[in-house]
Each structure stands twice: as C-alpha cells, then as structure tokens.
Write a structure and sequence with these properties.
single chain; alpha+beta; five-stranded antiparallel beta sheet; 8 helices; 5 strands; binds ribavirin triphosphate; binds magnesium ion
C-alpha cells in the first residue's frame, strides 16, 4: 500500500570494539540522533567466538573471516536498534564505505571517515537489508538468554 512507503523501519547498528575502546560511543550517538534516528534499544555485548561466527556467517569463506571474528571478540561492542523511515539505507550512508581510508577520501562526513582506523577496524556496523536487520536484531536482542549462554553480557 502507498502508506507503507513512509513506514518506520528498524535497523541494527553496532559500535564495534575499536569504537567502544576509542571512546567514540557518545559522539556516535549524537550523530545518530542528529540524523533523525530514534534509538529504540541499546545493549553492550562482548561477543563470544560462536556468536561472532553466527553474526558474520555470510563471510565464513572469506580470507579475512578469522581476523574479523578475533577483532569482534576483542572487547565489548554496543548494539543499537535504530528507527526511522528508510533507516537501513540511511544508516549505511551515514557510516560510509567499509574501508575507513576510502571513507575519508570519498565520504569525509561519514562515521567511518571520522572514527574508523582501516578496512577492518571501521568502528561501526549496519545491516545491509531488511532480512539482515531482522536476523541481526533477533540474534542480539530477542533470543532467549538461556539459548544464548555463549554470549556474555559485559559489565559496563
Ligand atoms: P558491516 O557488515 O560490519 O556493517 O561492514 P560492511 O557491510 O561495510 O562490510 P562487509 O563486507 O560486510 O565486511 C564485514 C566486516 O569485515 C571486516 N572486514 N575486514 N579486508 C579486510 O580485512 C576486511 N574486509 C572486511 C570489516 O570489519 C567489515 O566491516
Ligand atoms: Mg556487511
């Protein structure tokens, strides 16, 4: 229906371990709100290896996968559910390209341009489709705690 075009959408955003340890959380939350997103929920997680592998399962055959899993497990991350019209695409635009150096060259106002280090330590994550958003929100926010014993809640 035509009314659905402007429907509020949800996406899964995450400040990765380099962003949390680099003390960029408050600056990123300000950028999120200034761009018109509502933060519907937020939660710190310290990923276990099992959950990191599940979260990034689509990349399991890639050469960078072991390093990616090690990086994501290296410290706490902050997961956020963002709400807004066109939240998925707009959040991807705000974070910028995967490679932080390319972000600085091509999208200097993006979050990865401002706070990312390289093509791995790029500070933030964003769901890349509706299907991904639903899967990632379920994995990090909606699973029964007893079914998710391998993921440790960080004491932040
Ligand atoms: P994300 O999923 O975290 O939002 O990032 P993305 O879509 O921009 O990039 P993707 O291709 O999905 O890659 C997932 C994450 O893997 C790490 N990576 N390292 N060459 C490398 O060393 C490399 N390439 C990707 C990054 O942390 C990337 O965000
Ligand atoms: Mg991705």
């Amino acid at each position: 229906a035509a009314a659905d075009v402007n429907a509020v959408e949800r996406t899964l955003a995450m400040v990765k371990p380099d962003g949390v340890s680099g003390s960029h959380v408050e600056a990123i939350k300000t950028l999120i709100r200034d761009a018109g997103f509502t933060i519907a929920a937020e939660r710190y997680w310290h990923f276990s290896e099992a959950v990191a592998k599940e979260f990034y399962a689509e990349h399991s055959e890639r050469g960078f996968f072991p390093n990616l899993v090690e990086f994501i497990c290296s410290g706490p991350s902050l997961a956020l559910i963002l709400e807004k019209e066109h939240a998925i695409a707009d959040w991807r635009l705000l974070i910028g390209p995967t490679d932080s150096s390319r972000a600085r060259e091509e999208f200097p106002k993006s979050i990865r341009a401002k706070f990312g280090v390289d093509s791995q330590k790029n500070c933030v994550h964003g769901s890349d489709s509706r299907q991904a958003a639903i899967r990632e929100i379920a994995l990090l926010f909606e699973q029964d705690q007893t079914a998710k014993k391998s993921m440790q809640h960080d004491e932040l």
